[in-house]
Amino acid sequence: MIRIDSTADGVALEFNNVSGWSVVVRGEELGLSLSDPRVLLSLLPFLEVGKKGIVDQVNSTDALETFPEMTLIEAGLRNGSEHWVSCALDWLKDKEPEEISGFYSYLQAVFDGKKKYSQPLRHKAKALLKVVD
To answer: What are the φ and ψ backbone dihedral angles of 10, each rounded to 5 degrees?
Structure first.
């Protein structure tokens, strides 16, 4: 089993060869469904760790190949706060155009959110939109 602890107390991502990755909160395995608000919120601190930080903690090819990176990015974008969206876009910028295109509606919403998001964040979203247009 591989365990990555979050900066949030009692929150971790765990991997085992049978069930794959799961969010664990205070010993309770929650899975990875973003329809569960506990999962969505529990994933957010992992965005701050960054991909390199995750890779440094995972010493298994199987675990790295199945790491729920796109779910993590979606959690940040769905949360909608400036900070988490910015972290999610940082993860997204190194993805292939086909992967970025799956987040097109989120990126467009950030770019169009003049009252909600800062200009630098909107520009980050626009740069990613250009990759898929």
So the answer is: 80, 10
